[in-house]
Design goal:
Layout: H1 27-31, E1 39-42, E2 61-67, E3 71-80, E4 83-92, E5 96-98, H2 103-122
Antiparallel strand pairs: 1-2, 1-5, 2-3, 3-4
Amino acid sequence: MTNPKGVRRGTRDMFSRGFKKNGVQHLSTYLTCYRIGQIVDIKANGAFQKGMPHKSYHGKTGRVFNVAPHALGIVVNKRVKGRVIAKRINLRVEHVHPSKCRDNHVARVKSNDKIRRDCKASGKRLPCLKRKPQAPRTAH
């Protein structure tokens, strides 16, 4: 048989629900508040066909540009041949999760600001706040 060319071709594992993850969707999915400019991860939920992303956007990270009552507008970068295009797609909230990619950065900024304030108050010299590469392991 030749290769089928449907929209959901090759998504048997991608859109399938995990083991013991079937049933009604949790309310927190619908009660999560999204704001314009927020970074979100796209993960298609096979239990909901409405507002489902194309398989090429599954696993991608984008930025919210529009918020509707049940859906979000998201800007995602997509590789097309040799170039990258910023695509605007609309997805329902069941297929979107807030991204944790900036959590480490935000925590580092807060801790650096606290160190700066403490040094300024005590009159100490400001230490280097840049991240340092991990040193090689010592010999045994």
